[in-house]
Amino acid sequence: MKSLTEHLTFTTKGRREYINITRQVEDLVRKSGIQEGLCLVNAMHITASVFINDNESGLIQDFDDFLEGLAPHEPVSKYRHNRTGEDNGDAHIKRTIMGREVVVAVTKGRLDFGPWEQIFYGEFDGRRPKRVLVKIIGE
Question: Which domain holds residue 79?
Fold first, then answer.
């Protein structure tokens, strides 16, 4: 069994941002040399997410609109968490909804996706460096 562990770091310009990271993860699968196995991709911060979906701009905006409607950033006084001096209570909720990680099969040295599937990093409290773990295991 072989493994590769790498970290990707993202610093977004805005508070919320969605970044297609499929290419970076594919590059790491190639680097690993693993032909058959699993690839775990997970956000290392409690206010960010990794998820799989279609790379279509309207859909990405729909996600953002849905999440902001469900857990709006303002008023920040709405969230008990923000009484600690933080202003990111909404970001914790958004992350829980969108999920922490994805696992994708590696088959014949490639990520084994269904049609239209892409890996995204979702940032809900950005503007500072945050890490994503990529761990690939297999033969």
Answer: 2-138
